[in-house]
Amino acid sequence: MGYDAKFRVWRGDADGGDLQDYTVLANDGEVVLDIIHRLQATQTPDLAVRWNCKAGKCGSCSAEVNGRPKLLCMTRMSTFTEDEVITVTPMRTFPVIRDLVTDVSFNYAKAREIQSFTPPEGLKAGEYRMKQVDVARSQEFRKCIECFLCQDTCHVVRDHEENKQNFAGPRFLMRVAELDMHPLDVAERRDSAQSEHGLGLCNITKCCTDVCPEHIKITDNALIPMKERVVDRHYDPLVWLGNKLFRR
Ligand code: SF4
Ligand code: SF4
Ligand code: FES
């Protein structure tokens, strides 16, 4: 059975905009992205929205629904009552391009700042051997679809433009942790996690974990272990001595 859903959608661009009200048909089993597409098809052909897979796997339909960072294609209409006004706005942490589309290039810049996987010199292809336990540990982090919802929700940058330069955000601190946990990676990661990527600004509120559509335990399995590794390096005398004698 269809019903008239009440939507409030942010319309505008980098120069400004506002919320506009629409009434759009919603059918059983639909998601918010279906309604946005119907709105586009029937009333607002110029409404800008980014999407690709409609299956929660490309990470491109990220926006905010009732102020919560969400994938539009994975947010079921059945989670709202029929008389509820559903507000859809662009991700707040990134600059708006138009309507629901934001410029997420901050994230690509942060990705480029992380030194890529660095195996020991002279190690040849075919000599890369890892234990299954080490493979399993990073497997969780590799599920990331780069939707940047965790980056959007993190309070360190959400309302603090001034922190963006010194803070990589949860997605990329998780990448640093993943590489630091890799048994074949020999790059220095722990000092730079603090000094270059801003690990110290994270106060483990777990908001990033709460919004991750892949249910990655970003805080518990990446950020907290990375903080512990940094502390070990600086304050554990045995680790300190080991670091002096051996590279890892
Ligand atoms: S746990 Fe850290 S990275 Fe995640 S939202 Fe909180 S402050 Fe940001
Ligand atoms: S860690 Fe989760 S929330 Fe963050 S970018 Fe990856 S999939 Fe999205
Ligand atoms: S359209 Fe691909 S994740 Fe939503």
From TrEMBL:
The entry sums up its family as follows:
Belongs to the succinate dehydrogenase/fumarate reductase iron-sulfur protein family.
EC identifiers of the protein: 1.3.5.1
Needed cofactors, names only, are: [3Fe-4S] cluster; [2Fe-2S] cluster; [4Fe-4S] cluster
GO MF assignments: 2 iron, 2 sulfur cluster binding; 4 iron, 4 sulfur cluster binding; electron transfer activity; metal ion binding; succinate dehydrogenase (quinone) activity
This protein is called: Fumarate reductase iron-sulfur subunit
According to the entry, every stretch annotated as the 2Fe-2S ferredoxin-type domain falls at 5-92
Q: Kindly tell me the pathway this chain contributes to.
A: Carbohydrate metabolism; tricarboxylic acid cycle
Q: Where are the transmembrane segments?
A: none
User: Which InterPro entries did the record assign?
Assistant: 2Fe-2S_ferredoxin-like_sf, 2Fe-2S_ferredoxin-type, 2Fe2S_fd_BS, 4Fe4S_Fe-S-bd, Beta-grasp_dom_sf, Helical_ferredxn, SDH/FRD_Iron-Sulfur, Succ_DH/fum_Rdtase_Fe-S
| Any single Pfam family the record assigns to this protein | Fer2_3
Q: Name one GO cellular component term.
A: plasma membrane
Its keywords, alphabetically, are:
2Fe-2S, 4Fe-4S, Iron, Iron-sulfur, Metal-binding, Oxidoreductase
A biological process term (GO) from this entry? respiratory electron transport chain
